[in-house]
Write a structure and sequence with these properties.
alpha/beta; Leucine-rich repeat, LRR (right-handed beta-alpha superhelix); two-stranded antiparallel ribbon; 11% strand; elongated; Leu-rich_rpt_Cys-con_subtyp; F-box-like_dom_sf
Length: 337
Protein backbone atom coordinates (compact mmCIF):
# COMPACT_ATOMS: atom_id res chain seq x y z
CA UNK A 1 0.00 0.00 0.00
CA UNK A 2 1.61 3.33 -1.01
CA UNK A 3 2.49 5.77 1.76
CA UNK A 4 0.66 9.11 1.90
CA UNK A 5 2.59 11.99 0.35
CA UNK A 6 2.62 13.95 3.62
CA UNK A 7 4.25 11.06 5.48
CA UNK A 8 6.85 10.60 2.75
CA UNK A 9 7.76 14.30 2.99
CA UNK A 10 8.28 14.08 6.75
CA UNK A 11 10.54 11.07 6.36
CA UNK A 12 12.63 12.93 3.78
CA UNK A 13 13.00 15.99 6.07
CA UNK A 14 14.06 13.77 8.98
CA UNK A 15 16.67 12.02 6.83
CA UNK A 16 18.00 15.37 5.60
CA UNK A 17 18.37 16.70 9.19
CA UNK A 18 20.16 13.53 10.26
CA UNK A 19 22.51 13.81 7.30
CA UNK A 20 23.22 17.49 8.06
CA UNK A 21 23.87 16.92 11.78
CA UNK A 22 26.20 14.02 11.06
CA UNK A 23 28.30 16.26 8.84
CA UNK A 24 28.97 18.83 11.63
CA UNK A 25 32.35 18.57 13.43
CA UNK A 26 32.15 17.31 17.02
CA UNK A 27 32.22 19.98 19.74
CA UNK A 28 35.70 20.80 21.12
CA UNK A 29 36.66 18.99 24.32
CA UNK A 30 36.29 20.82 27.60
CA UNK A 31 39.44 22.62 28.84
CA UNK A 32 41.56 20.19 30.87
CA UNK A 33 41.18 22.21 34.09
CA UNK A 34 37.40 21.66 34.04
CA UNK A 35 37.97 17.96 34.60
CA UNK A 36 40.02 18.54 37.77
CA UNK A 37 38.42 17.53 41.09
CA UNK A 38 36.71 20.49 42.72
CA UNK A 39 39.01 20.50 45.76
CA UNK A 40 42.12 20.70 43.55
CA UNK A 41 40.63 23.57 41.57
CA UNK A 42 39.86 25.39 44.82
CA UNK A 43 43.41 24.82 46.10
CA UNK A 44 44.86 26.31 42.90
CA UNK A 45 42.59 29.35 42.94
CA UNK A 46 43.28 30.05 46.61
CA UNK A 47 46.89 30.77 45.70
CA UNK A 48 45.85 33.75 43.60
CA UNK A 49 44.53 36.00 46.37
CA UNK A 50 41.12 37.61 46.67
CA UNK A 51 41.77 40.51 44.29
CA UNK A 52 42.89 38.31 41.40
CA UNK A 53 39.99 35.91 41.96
CA UNK A 54 37.37 38.65 41.95
CA UNK A 55 38.86 40.56 39.02
CA UNK A 56 39.75 37.69 36.72
CA UNK A 57 39.72 34.04 37.80
CA UNK A 58 36.00 33.71 38.51
CA UNK A 59 35.23 34.83 34.95
CA UNK A 60 37.20 32.12 33.17
CA UNK A 61 34.44 29.51 33.04
CA UNK A 62 31.26 28.43 34.80
CA UNK A 63 33.15 25.79 36.79
CA UNK A 64 35.53 28.37 38.23
CA UNK A 65 32.61 30.75 38.81
CA UNK A 66 30.88 28.13 40.96
CA UNK A 67 34.05 27.25 42.87
CA UNK A 68 34.75 30.96 43.55
CA UNK A 69 31.35 31.30 45.22
CA UNK A 70 31.93 28.48 47.70
CA UNK A 71 32.23 29.87 51.28
CA UNK A 72 35.18 27.54 51.86
CA UNK A 73 37.15 29.66 49.37
CA UNK A 74 36.76 32.68 51.61
CA UNK A 75 37.89 31.42 55.00
CA UNK A 76 41.27 33.05 54.35
CA UNK A 77 40.99 36.40 52.54
CA UNK A 78 44.19 37.98 51.28
CA UNK A 79 43.59 41.57 50.20
CA UNK A 80 47.27 42.22 49.62
CA UNK A 81 47.38 45.13 47.19
CA UNK A 82 50.07 44.79 44.53
CA UNK A 83 51.53 48.30 44.17
CA UNK A 84 52.22 47.63 40.45
CA UNK A 85 48.48 47.42 39.77
CA UNK A 86 46.52 50.65 40.07
CA UNK A 87 43.24 49.87 41.83
CA UNK A 88 41.08 52.56 43.38
CA UNK A 89 40.60 52.32 47.15
CA UNK A 90 36.83 52.31 46.66
CA UNK A 91 37.13 49.26 44.40
CA UNK A 92 39.34 47.51 46.95
CA UNK A 93 36.81 48.31 49.67
CA UNK A 94 33.99 46.88 47.53
CA UNK A 95 35.94 43.72 46.70
CA UNK A 96 36.77 43.15 50.36
CA UNK A 97 33.09 43.40 51.30
CA UNK A 98 32.16 40.95 48.54
CA UNK A 99 34.79 38.50 49.81
CA UNK A 100 33.53 38.81 53.39
CA UNK A 101 29.94 38.25 52.23
CA UNK A 102 30.94 35.10 50.36
CA UNK A 103 32.55 33.67 53.50
CA UNK A 104 29.06 33.50 55.05
CA UNK A 105 30.45 33.90 58.56
CA UNK A 106 33.23 31.32 58.11
CA UNK A 107 36.07 33.85 57.80
CA UNK A 108 39.08 32.83 59.89
CA UNK A 109 41.91 34.99 58.53
CA UNK A 110 42.10 38.30 56.66
CA UNK A 111 44.94 40.50 55.42
CA UNK A 112 44.29 44.11 54.33
CA UNK A 113 47.03 46.26 52.83
CA UNK A 114 47.17 49.97 51.92
CA UNK A 115 43.45 50.70 52.12
CA UNK A 116 40.55 50.36 54.54
CA UNK A 117 38.84 52.55 57.10
CA UNK A 118 36.74 52.30 60.25
CA UNK A 119 33.57 51.53 58.29
CA UNK A 120 35.19 48.57 56.51
CA UNK A 121 36.58 47.27 59.78
CA UNK A 122 33.12 47.48 61.31
CA UNK A 123 31.61 45.68 58.29
CA UNK A 124 34.09 42.82 58.70
CA UNK A 125 33.56 42.62 62.47
CA UNK A 126 29.78 42.37 62.18
CA UNK A 127 30.06 39.37 59.82
CA UNK A 128 33.13 37.51 61.08
CA UNK A 129 32.72 36.41 64.68
CA UNK A 130 34.89 33.34 63.97
CA UNK A 131 37.93 35.43 62.97
CA UNK A 132 41.24 34.12 64.33
CA UNK A 133 43.85 36.16 62.45
CA UNK A 134 43.75 39.88 61.52
CA UNK A 135 46.58 41.63 59.66
CA UNK A 136 46.53 45.35 58.80
CA UNK A 137 49.31 46.93 56.74
CA UNK A 138 49.51 50.70 56.26
CA UNK A 139 45.79 51.17 56.84
CA UNK A 140 46.10 54.88 57.54
CA UNK A 141 42.37 55.60 57.50
CA UNK A 142 41.66 53.25 60.39
CA UNK A 143 41.82 55.89 63.09
CA UNK A 144 42.52 55.71 66.80
CA UNK A 145 39.64 53.90 68.45
CA UNK A 146 38.74 51.99 65.29
CA UNK A 147 39.91 48.67 66.68
CA UNK A 148 38.52 49.39 70.13
CA UNK A 149 35.06 49.87 68.61
CA UNK A 150 35.00 46.39 67.06
CA UNK A 151 37.17 44.35 69.43
CA UNK A 152 34.16 42.76 71.16
CA UNK A 153 33.19 41.17 67.82
CA UNK A 154 36.41 39.13 67.71
CA UNK A 155 36.20 36.90 70.83
CA UNK A 156 38.22 34.12 69.14
CA UNK A 157 41.02 36.31 67.76
CA UNK A 158 44.41 34.67 68.28
CA UNK A 159 46.70 36.83 66.12
CA UNK A 160 46.72 40.58 65.48
CA UNK A 161 49.46 42.07 63.30
CA UNK A 162 49.60 45.81 62.64
CA UNK A 163 52.34 47.18 60.38
CA UNK A 164 53.29 50.75 59.45
CA UNK A 165 50.53 52.32 61.47
CA UNK A 166 49.73 53.67 64.90
CA UNK A 167 46.98 52.54 67.24
CA UNK A 168 46.03 54.06 70.56
CA UNK A 169 46.45 52.77 74.08
CA UNK A 170 42.65 52.45 74.23
CA UNK A 171 42.72 50.13 71.19
CA UNK A 172 45.26 47.86 72.88
CA UNK A 173 43.29 47.78 76.14
CA UNK A 174 40.03 46.96 74.34
CA UNK A 175 41.64 44.22 72.27
CA UNK A 176 43.28 42.68 75.31
CA UNK A 177 40.05 42.66 77.31
CA UNK A 178 37.80 41.44 74.48
CA UNK A 179 40.17 39.00 72.79
CA UNK A 180 41.21 36.76 75.66
CA UNK A 181 42.61 34.13 73.27
CA UNK A 182 45.16 36.50 71.72
CA UNK A 183 48.52 34.71 71.45
CA UNK A 184 50.45 36.79 68.91
CA UNK A 185 50.62 40.58 68.59
CA UNK A 186 52.69 42.73 66.24
CA UNK A 187 52.87 46.51 66.43
CA UNK A 188 55.24 48.02 63.88
CA UNK A 189 55.00 51.81 64.03
CA UNK A 190 58.46 52.44 62.60
CA UNK A 191 57.18 55.29 60.41
CA UNK A 192 56.12 57.27 63.44
CA UNK A 193 59.07 57.33 65.82
CA UNK A 194 59.73 60.39 67.86
CA UNK A 195 57.85 63.35 69.34
CA UNK A 196 60.84 63.36 71.68
CA UNK A 197 60.26 66.89 72.95
CA UNK A 198 56.53 66.56 73.56
CA UNK A 199 54.66 65.44 76.67
CA UNK A 200 53.58 61.82 76.31
CA UNK A 201 54.35 58.52 77.97
CA UNK A 202 56.52 56.46 75.66
CA UNK A 203 55.53 53.37 77.64
CA UNK A 204 51.76 53.72 77.18
CA UNK A 205 51.59 50.95 74.59
CA UNK A 206 53.90 48.64 76.52
CA UNK A 207 51.96 49.12 79.75
CA UNK A 208 48.66 48.50 77.96
CA UNK A 209 50.05 45.25 76.55
CA UNK A 210 51.44 44.18 79.90
CA UNK A 211 48.17 44.84 81.72
CA UNK A 212 45.74 43.37 79.20
CA UNK A 213 47.40 40.62 77.12
CA UNK A 214 48.58 38.03 79.64
CA UNK A 215 48.25 35.06 77.23
CA UNK A 216 50.70 36.37 74.63
CA UNK A 217 53.31 33.93 73.32
CA UNK A 218 54.71 36.14 70.55
CA UNK A 219 55.16 39.91 70.63
CA UNK A 220 56.85 42.18 68.07
CA UNK A 221 57.31 45.89 68.89
CA UNK A 222 59.45 46.81 65.91
CA UNK A 223 60.45 50.50 66.12
CA UNK A 224 58.66 51.19 69.40
CA UNK A 225 59.69 53.98 71.80
CA UNK A 226 59.31 51.95 75.00
CA UNK A 227 62.00 52.22 77.68
CA UNK A 228 63.26 49.70 80.21
CA UNK A 229 60.23 50.50 82.37
CA UNK A 230 57.85 49.36 79.65
CA UNK A 231 59.91 46.28 78.83
CA UNK A 232 60.04 45.26 82.48
CA UNK A 233 56.24 45.61 82.70
CA UNK A 234 55.83 43.33 79.67
CA UNK A 235 58.08 40.67 81.19
CA UNK A 236 56.06 40.86 84.40
CA UNK A 237 52.61 40.89 82.76
CA UNK A 238 53.17 38.45 79.89
CA UNK A 239 54.66 35.47 81.68
CA UNK A 240 54.00 33.05 78.80
CA UNK A 241 55.91 35.11 76.27
CA UNK A 242 58.27 32.98 74.18
CA UNK A 243 59.19 35.31 71.30
CA UNK A 244 59.96 39.05 71.56
CA UNK A 245 61.10 41.29 68.69
CA UNK A 246 62.60 44.61 69.87
CA UNK A 247 64.48 45.61 66.73
CA UNK A 248 64.85 49.39 66.31
CA UNK A 249 63.59 49.94 69.88
CA UNK A 250 66.54 52.18 70.71
CA UNK A 251 65.22 53.58 74.00
CA UNK A 252 65.84 50.36 75.90
CA UNK A 253 69.14 49.16 77.36
CA UNK A 254 69.76 45.40 77.49
CA UNK A 255 73.31 45.57 78.82
CA UNK A 256 72.49 44.99 82.50
CA UNK A 257 70.20 42.79 84.57
CA UNK A 258 67.16 43.48 82.38
CA UNK A 259 68.97 42.12 79.34
CA UNK A 260 69.96 39.03 81.31
CA UNK A 261 66.37 38.51 82.40
CA UNK A 262 65.16 38.84 78.80
CA UNK A 263 67.55 36.17 77.60
CA UNK A 264 66.54 33.84 80.42
CA UNK A 265 62.80 34.36 80.05
CA UNK A 266 62.47 34.67 76.25
CA UNK A 267 63.42 31.77 73.97
CA UNK A 268 63.45 33.83 70.76
CA UNK A 269 64.74 37.36 71.45
CA UNK A 270 65.57 39.96 68.81
CA UNK A 271 67.47 42.93 70.25
CA UNK A 272 67.29 46.58 69.09
CA UNK A 273 70.40 46.42 66.92
CA UNK A 274 69.85 42.95 65.49
CA UNK A 275 69.87 42.74 61.71
CA UNK A 276 66.67 43.45 59.78
CA UNK A 277 67.84 41.33 56.86
CA UNK A 278 64.88 39.45 55.46
CA UNK A 279 62.37 41.68 57.21
CA UNK A 280 59.17 41.96 55.20
CA UNK A 281 59.04 45.75 55.15
CA UNK A 282 61.55 48.54 54.81
CA UNK A 283 62.93 49.63 58.17
CA UNK A 284 61.90 53.19 57.40
CA UNK A 285 62.03 55.81 60.13
CA UNK A 286 60.26 59.14 60.34
CA UNK A 287 61.57 61.10 63.31
CA UNK A 288 59.29 63.87 64.52
CA UNK A 289 61.20 66.30 66.70
CA UNK A 290 61.62 69.98 67.53
CA UNK A 291 64.36 71.79 65.68
CA UNK A 292 65.32 73.84 68.74
CA UNK A 293 65.84 72.49 72.25
CA UNK A 294 64.78 75.81 73.80
CA UNK A 295 61.17 74.95 73.01
CA UNK A 296 59.74 73.31 76.13
CA UNK A 297 58.20 69.89 76.08
CA UNK A 298 54.45 70.11 75.81
CA UNK A 299 54.27 72.28 72.67
CA UNK A 300 50.63 72.84 71.93
CA UNK A 301 49.07 70.80 69.13
CA UNK A 302 48.13 74.00 67.30
CA UNK A 303 51.78 75.02 67.02
CA UNK A 304 53.14 71.56 66.44
CA UNK A 305 53.40 71.87 62.66
CA UNK A 306 55.94 74.69 62.99
CA UNK A 307 58.46 72.41 64.64
CA UNK A 308 58.09 69.04 62.91
CA UNK A 309 60.66 67.68 60.50
CA UNK A 310 60.52 64.33 58.74
CA UNK A 311 63.59 62.20 58.20
CA UNK A 312 63.33 58.98 56.22
CA UNK A 313 66.11 56.43 56.13
CA UNK A 314 66.09 53.03 54.48
CA UNK A 315 68.28 50.24 55.77
CA UNK A 316 70.94 50.93 53.17
CA UNK A 317 71.50 54.39 54.68
CA UNK A 318 72.90 52.91 57.89
CA UNK A 319 73.88 49.47 59.03
CA UNK A 320 71.62 47.36 61.20
CA UNK A 321 73.87 47.61 64.23
CA UNK A 322 73.91 51.39 64.50
CA UNK A 323 71.43 53.56 66.34
CA UNK A 324 70.33 56.14 63.72
CA UNK A 325 69.33 58.51 66.52
CA UNK A 326 72.69 58.74 68.22
CA UNK A 327 74.24 62.20 68.48
CA UNK A 328 76.71 61.59 65.69
CA UNK A 329 73.86 61.87 63.18
CA UNK A 330 72.73 65.37 64.25
CA UNK A 331 74.19 68.80 63.89
CA UNK A 332 73.71 71.55 66.48
CA UNK A 333 70.30 72.41 65.07
CA UNK A 334 69.06 68.84 65.50
CA UNK A 335 69.16 68.01 61.79
CA UNK A 336 70.57 64.82 60.34
CA UNK A 337 73.66 65.24 58.22
Amino acid sequence: MPKPKRLVGRIKQKNQKASTSSSKPPPPPSPPWVELPREITADILLRLGAIEILQNAQRVCSTWWNVCHDPIMWRDIDMGNDSTVDIDDNDLDWMCRVAVNRSQGQLLKINIEHFGNNDLLKYIAERSSQLRHLRLVSCDEISDGGLAAVAKNFPLLEELHIYLAVISEADIVAIGRSCSQLKSFTLNNIRFRGFRNLHFNVNDEALAIAGNMPELRRLALFGNNLTNEGLRAILDGCRRLESLDLRHCYSIDLEGDLGKRCRQQIKDLKCPRDSTSGYEFRAQICDYSSSNDEYPSGVSEAGLSDYLFDYEYDDFDYDDFTNPFSGEYHDEEGFFY
